């Protein structure tokens, strides 16, 4: 989680996965480094295979945590209404520009926020999805409790991280070790009635039903 373009200084943030500061422009993209990180995320995040796991309908509300440059938002907004929280103003600008028409039509609502502080009411969403940012959260359990809170009864949470059966050369070294993946599974199991793990082509995915 430490790759970066040469010559870019990075803000240090806390991460539960490394138990210390994370030096990565992907943890909090801003300025020139944020725009670079957004381009990399657009290329390396397997959005279509994740979108296929989120079976949203026209009346559904879906929340994406850490929407980055907004590619998955665009895919999900083809069916339902998509909300998003991301801590980076830079990513909000990029994602809003990518989804300008749907934002104007009320189909996309992108805000500043984090996994552990979304700002939404209880029992609000039919699905929540997080792609390649769970290991950057400061507090795994706090983030999952918040996402459980905003989900409707019977709704589900999809969490994806780099991995899967055929990860790219860039993302292969970003895989989480099995003990950390088990910690995610265990934390989900303490909150949700059913938790499944899937190995997609480019992602390890947990799908938890409330």
Task: List the main descriptive attributes of the protein structure presented here.
alpha/beta, 7-stranded mixed sheet, 9 strands, disordered N terminus
Task: Set down the secondary structure blueprint.
Elements: E1 12-15, E2 20-23, H1 31-44, H2 47-51, E3 61-65, H3 71-76, E4 81-86, H4 89-98, H5 100-104, E5 108-112, E6 125-131, H6 140-150, E7 151-162, H7 178-189, E8 194-199, E9 203-209
Parallel strand pairs: 3-4, 3-6, 4-5, 6-7
Antiparallel strand pairs: 1-2, 7-9, 8-9
Task: Describe the protein in words.
The protein has 210 residues and is α/β, with parallel strands linked by helices. Helix content is 30%, strand content 27%. It is built from 7 helices and 9 strands; from the N terminus they run ββααβαβααββαβαββ. It has a 7-stranded mixed sheet, sandwiched between helices. The model is unreliable at 1-10 (pLDDT under 50).
Please trace the helix and strand order, writing H or E for each element: EEHHEHEHHEEHEHEE
Helical element count? 7
Which class best fits the helix and strand makeup? alpha/beta
Helix content: 25-40%
Number of strands: 9
Task: Describe what is shown at a glance.
This protein has 210 residues and is of the alpha/beta class.
């Amino acid at each position: 989680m430490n790759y970066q373009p040469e010559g870019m200084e990075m803000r240090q943030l806390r991460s539960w996965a490394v138990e210390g500061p994370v030096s990565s422009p992907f943890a909090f993209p801003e300025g020139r480094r944020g725009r670079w990180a957004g381009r990399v995320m657009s290329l390396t995040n397997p959005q279509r295979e994740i979108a296929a796991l989120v079976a949203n309908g026209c009346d559904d509300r879906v929340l994406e945590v850490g929407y980055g440059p907004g590619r998955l938002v665009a895919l999900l907004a083809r069916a339902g209404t998509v909300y998003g929280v991301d801590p980076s103003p830079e990513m909000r600008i990029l994602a809003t520009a990518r989804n300008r028409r749907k934002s104007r039509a009320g189909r996309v609502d992108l805000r500043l926020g984090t996994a552990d502080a979304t700002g939404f009411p209880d029992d609000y969403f039919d699905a929540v999805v997080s792609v390649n940012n769970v290991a950057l959260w400061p507090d795994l359990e706090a983030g999952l409790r918040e996402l459980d809170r905003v989900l409707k009864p019977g709704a589900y949470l999809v969490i994806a991280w780099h991995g899967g059966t055929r990860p790219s050369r860039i993302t292969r070294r970003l895989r989480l070790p099995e003990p950390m993946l088990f910690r995610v599974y265990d934390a989900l199991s303490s909150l949700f009635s059913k938790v499944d793990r899937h190995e997609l082509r480019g992602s390890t995915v947990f799908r938890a039903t409330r």
